[in-house]
Amino acid sequence: MITDDMSPNRTLLNLIYGDASRYIPTNELTEEQLEKLDNITYRWCNCKSCKRPLKIGAVTVVPQWAGHANAKTLTIRLSKPFLKQNTNPTVAITLSTFVHTVLHEIIHILFPEFNEEQTEKKTREWMSNPKFQLNS
To answer: What is the pLDDT along the chain (136 residues), one digit of tens a residue?
Structure first.
């Protein structure tokens, strides 16, 4: 469910979330996880974390994150600065990055006990699963 009603990019956000959620093997989730999944909200974000640059050696990557989640409020936020920075001819790369990010953040919500490494491992596992969920 989208919570940012004023977003001019609502269709894009719905498309990204919908694509990411199709990778979730819902038949493998507990009732509690399914309930969480049904109640996740998502929106564009322009917070300090989404704007903060990340330095990797001499290279500065702006913004630092493509998205973040809050497992307590079941909210996913996607970085509007990341979107603005990456609207160029590599749109397919940007969209796949956002789909990966949303799935990653959903996993943070569904598996709050996972650390970052476990979350990323589960994200890659679900994204590489040939059973892409067409009926989600």
So the answer is: 444 454 457 888 899 999 999 999 999 999 999 999 999 999 988 888 777 776 667 766 555 678 889 999 999 998 888 777 766 555 566 788 889 999 999 999 999 999 999 999 999 999 998 665 554 4
Cα–Cα distance between 92 and 46 in angstroms, integer? 22
Structural contact between residues 40 and 106, judged by C-beta atoms closer than 8 angstroms: yes
What does the chain come to in residues?
136
Q: Domains of the chain by range and CATH?
A: 10-127 (3.30.2010.10)
Query: Of 80, 113, 110, nearest to 98 (Cα)?
Result: 80
Q: How far apart are CA 101 and CA 45, in angstroms?
A: 13
Q: Are 48 and 16 in contact (CB under 8 A)?
A: no
Phi then psi dihedrals of residue 112, to 5 deg: -65, -20
